[in-house]
Design brief:
The protein is 63% helix and 0% strand. With 108 residues, the protein is mainly alpha-helical. The protein starts with 5 loop residues before the first helix and ends in an 8-residue tail after the last helix.
Amino acid sequence: MTQKSPVTVWILTLVTFGIYGLLWLRACKHEMNAKYNAGIPTTFLALIPGPNLYYLWKWTGGAEKATGGKYSQLVGLLLFFIPAMFAIFLHQSAFNEAAQRGGAARAA
């Protein structure tokens, strides 16, 4: 995963009223689908009430693969029920840790 400062991601999400957070979700989705074959659907689903839970479930499953299990899929999803900006911060920190370890093993 691409390393970014969690603080920068958090501040940009705050300043842009969440728009950068959606772009961050999209960028991470593309990276997880390419590297880990995560099967995450289109980010458009994140904008629709109802299907957004399905999208976040699939996204956190990909994040679990990408971080080598730092957060389980359920815990990752529950993090989005606290203010999402904190979930973004925690997930980006986990992505950075995984990148420093050399990334998670590729899923078959």
